């Protein structure tokens, strides 16, 4: 009897914090450090508490650790976190059964402005299946596309307009290669970085990485895919791209432009502050921004990448979690984070607003590009797909394989992974 009483007392002591938290107006949010920083290191969380009385406790992990932790928590049906920041890179259909479907919450209390204020491709990224009619599992909170970055002073001196097509980009790269400056730079490194950067060239020409909506076979072995790869090889051959570009990641590409070694690149839209900061950039005020080179008629052109907010299906605070998601994805907060912290804005009304245009130099380019955003695959084999494609892209860039042959081999390798 005494032993049983001690056991009950110990159990009650262990349960007390969980019971207290369940009864309090407190949410646990697991996210990335950069996303928390975008809230003003908690400033918006304090505003949310002032409005609702709900405290948000944020826990952060770097990208890879965050993806692993979220997967572990969901599969274990853990209630440790109520709201989760889910990146497109680790969001898969298999995880969706552990997350709360948002459609009933949207019907009960729609997000201000409705889903129509987000680019359809951004919302579709977090639908299951990833079709226009799939169940909504998350709302875009930090999602955007890549843009064309170019030295406007050099273009003007050469009498060249901002390139709008791939052929114009190649011609401009050759013309701007002079006086120690290369016309262009791109991210040709191994793995995900090189594959996604090539895809930023190929997708606006009208090709997919994998076949939607189930992502069970390769879709990149097309004339458009080969054209994009041949263009990247051509820039190496004619010397209009920075040397050693086949090993470059995004920091290398950014630094090449910021340090006046290259004139143009296609880069994620969130990188623009790096060029407008006099502490790190030698080209402040001399960079122009435009939608990346798109073939006429390509409606789903620009891969949308980033983060959405989801509710843990095991959470006991789903109503409060929905209030928080509505708040952080609403236009006023999206505008505040974009203007004050460089957060990629996911709402069309924000990127089209005069306030955004006056404060953010990429505003017009982003407003023109976001309507053409497209969904990224969510196949669980995606990391291995990136590696398989990258190996053949590297062979083509090094001249060891023709672009069409390289993509044909990559297609065979990827289809084996997906089988």
Provide a concise account of the structure shown.
Helix content is 45%, strand content 13%. The protein is an alpha/beta fold and 419 residues long. The strands form four sheets. The protein has a five-stranded mixed beta sheet, with helices on both faces. Strands 8-7-9 form a three-stranded antiparallel beta sheet, sandwiched between helices.
Give the helix/strand layout.
Layout: H1 2-23, E1 26-31, H2 33-38, H3 43-52, E2 55-60, H4 63-75, E3 83-87, H5 103-108, H6 120-125, E4 127-128, E5 135-136, E6 139-144, E7 146-151, H7 152-158, H8 166-176, H9 192-202, H10 223-237, H11 250-258, E8 264-268, E9 287-291, E10 302-303, E11 305-311, H12 318-329, H13 331-341, H14 348-351, H15 354-359, H16 363-369, E12 373-374, H17 382-397, H18 403-418
Parallel strand pairs: 1-2, 1-3, 10-12
Antiparallel strand pairs: 3-11, 4-5, 6-11, 7-8, 7-9
Helix pairs in contact: 9-10, 9-17, 17-18
